[in-house]
Amino acid sequence: MRHWHVSFLSFCCFFMFLFFILFLLTPYDEISATRTWSFDLINKTCKTCSDKSIVFDYTFCFLSLQEVPVSHMTTLQGLGIVAMEVALQDATRTLSVVRGLLRNDSSACLRDCDLIYFDGVVTLVDSVGAFLEGRYGDAGAWVTAVMDGTSTCEEGFRDMDEVSPLTERNYSVFQLCDVALCIMKLLNSDALSF
Questions:
Q1: How far apart are CA 72 and CA 45, in angstroms?
Q2: Closest among 65, 60, 80 to 35, alpha carbons compared
Q3: What is the pTM of this model?
Q4: Which domains does the chain possess?
Q5: What's the per-residue H, E or C state across the chain?
Q6: What is the pLDDT of residues 125-171, one digit of tens each?
Q7: How many CB atoms lie within 10 A of CB 25?
């Protein structure tokens, strides 16, 4: 089963690589026109999502999506994939950080966060697969579970009166998942005309 997750993760990376190659092969004048359209799409998506939620961070959404080259020439579905891929990368990096911290500190909070992020990475891989198949309900439920996990990780330190070394990372993964979740909701509604 784990082998399948690694293979699927490789497939997702290859998918992003293909989009990046297409971006590089597009003539400059087409890129300029596409970027204008895509920045409008990113702006409109982030604005709509931030209007719907008090915890959604417009600036974080816009900067995170526009940083990825493929987002400059994609659709709403493509932005959803970008958000999920960036969330997956962030969660994977956070798992690595947690394991690094565990070498010097075996606190219960860090051990809990290790399990949470291990499960979160696997869940995000599954979510990307469901999203690509158009199963937005499943993908949304799994992304929500990852968001809950980041909150649980952070609350564990608070409950033990410890300073969390993962606050910024938990926030980042939470917000990226929130972007992906909002896009899934938009894809299932007529909230935006793209």
A1: 13
A2: 65
A3: 0.78
A4: 75-187 (1.20.140.40)
A5: CHHHHHHHHHHHHHHHHHHHHHHHHCCHHHHHHHHHHHHHHHHHHHHHHHHHCCCCCHHHHHHHHHCCHHHHHCCHHHHHHHHHHHHHHHHHHHHHHHHHHHCCCCCHHHHHHHHHHHHHHHHHHHHHHHHHCCCHHHHHHHHHHHHHHHHHHHHHHHHCCCCCCCHHHHHHHHHHHHHHHHHHHHHCCCCCCC
A6: 999 999 999 899 999 999 999 999 999 999 999 999 999 999 999 99
A7: 8
